[in-house]
């Protein structure tokens, strides 16, 4: 089966960012013998710069998987240039796709909605099933996060959202909240499939001997209790509250943030302003190496703004922390809190509450080893049951293959008439 996957913000594992689509595509190429093309941008959104040719060459080579890098307009903030960045990627995806051999299935992912719209047009012209993946609920997120008030823009995005829900042959969501949200829009529930984030089960092996090496890389002492945040540094992540938790921590604790994004400079300035020597802000690292840093830490942090739109979030770092067996401190209420508390893998510290976060970290340090072992076992059991990337990829491949077979039967019936 020939599959196209389009995600403006996808990256291979040797770069920091969204590796979900590369990992799904790799499974389809390796396990299903599929011919997969992943369409992605050569401008890295989180680091706000173009990816050089050396970094592209250093990426993992997978037989059957082709990375189709597309230029997109550079930007360094959430202004008009970011809109041009979105338009340019979607337009080039459409134009280049016109001249490529027809895929059997086309999957396009949000955010934003322009790439899925280009994907739908290509699928229509190529006469293949169109799968819409909803990673972020646009325009709901924009309205509730950014306060989008221009009526004509809101109406246009709402129309496009509804249009894509109607026209998609299959809708893939990452959380139960997203499934309920789309179902309540009047979409047939049978059309919606939950494929959450997950972990490739062989992507990390414990290496306690390297713990001290990675603690040195983080700039922390061997006897410090280390809380790690690994992920995007954007407005949605509310990381100023994580940094400010350092104000309320006694000696013997450290907070480490790994990643990049538009808020990184402001967070560095805040650290300097408050003189927080117990807070460390590091550059992004490749996906595989993130697990080494998590292993060297004592717990993981999940942070998002106190906004109802994030009540249904399941950040990828939730799966990363559980996979390595670390307790989790979450500032996010809703679905992620339910998973953490139901499975006994961490605590909710309160939303946008630096003092509450510090208090939660101190409580985790006081846990006995038996409790820590139970948390690690609970996390790994959850990943094995619900977050196995190979199993999730196989599930989605089976559904796409069903769409392809249905399309082929339909074409044959039309030819007979």
Automatic annotation (TrEMBL):
Domain of life: Bacteria
PANTHER family the UniProt entry points to: GLYCOSYLTRANSFERASE, GLYCOSYLTRANSFERASE (GROUP I)
All residue ranges annotated as the Glycosyl transferase family domain in the record: 211-381
Stored Pfam families: Glyco_trans_4_4 (PF13579), Glycos_transf_1 (PF00534)
Name under which the protein is recorded: Glycosyltransferase involved in cell wall biosynthesis
InterPro entries documented for this protein: Glyco_trans_1, Glyco_trans_4-like_N
Ranges where the Glycosyltransferase subfamily 4-like N-terminal domain occurs: 16-198
């Amino acid at each position: 089966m020939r599959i196209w996957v389009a995600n403006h913000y996808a990256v291979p594992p040797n770069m920091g960012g969204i590796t979900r689509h590369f990992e799904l595509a790799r499974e389809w190429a390796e396990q299903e013998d599929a011919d997969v093309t992943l369409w992605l941008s050569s401008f890295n959104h989180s680091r706000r710069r173009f990816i050089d040719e050396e970094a592209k060459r250093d990426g993992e080579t997978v037989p059957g998987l082709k990375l189709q890098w597309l230029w997109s307009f550079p930007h360094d903030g959430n202004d008009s240039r970011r809109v041009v960045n979105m338009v340019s990627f979607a337009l080039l995806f459409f134009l280049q796709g016109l001249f490529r051999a027809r895929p059997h299935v086309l999957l396009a992912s949000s955010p934003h909605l322009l790439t899925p719209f280009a994907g739908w047009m290509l699928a229509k012209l190529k006469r293949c099933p169109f799968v819409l993946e909803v990673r972020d609920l646009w325009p709901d997120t924009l309205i509730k996060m950014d306060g989008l008030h221009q009526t004509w823009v809101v109406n246009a995005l709402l129309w496009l959202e509804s249009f894509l829900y109607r026209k998609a042959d299959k809708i893939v969501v990452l959380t139960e909240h997203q499934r309920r949200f789309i179902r309540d829009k009047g979409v047939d529930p049978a059309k919606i499939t939950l494929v959450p984030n997950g972990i490739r089960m062989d992507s990390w092996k414990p290496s306690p001997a390297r713990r001290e090496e990675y603690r040195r890389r983080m700039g922390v002492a061997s006897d410090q209790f280390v809380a790690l945040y690994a992920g995007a540094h954007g407005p949605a992540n509310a990381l100023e509250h994580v940094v400010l938790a350092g104000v309320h921590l006694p000696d013997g604790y450290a907070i480490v943030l790994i990643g990049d994004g538009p808020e990184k400079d402001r967070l560095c300035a805040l650290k300097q302003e408050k003189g927080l020597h117990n807070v460390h802000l590091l550059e992004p690292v490749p996906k595989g190496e993130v697990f080494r840093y998590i292993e060297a830490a004592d717990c993981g942090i999940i942070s998002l703004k106190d906004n109802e739109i994030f009540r249904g979030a399941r950040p990828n770092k939730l799966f990363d922390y559980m996979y390595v067996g670390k307790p989790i401190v979450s500032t996010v209420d809703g679905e992620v809190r339910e998973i953490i508390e139901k499975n006994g893998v961490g605590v909710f510290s309160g939303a946008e509450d630096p003092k509450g976060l510090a208090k939660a970290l101190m409580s985790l340090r006081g846990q006995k080893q038996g409790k820590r072992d139970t948390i690690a076992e609970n996390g790994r059991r959850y990943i094995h049951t619900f977050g196995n990337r190979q199993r999730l990829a196989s599930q989605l491949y089976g559904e796409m293959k069903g769409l392809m077979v249905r399309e082929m039967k339909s074409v044959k019936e039309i030819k007979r008439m």
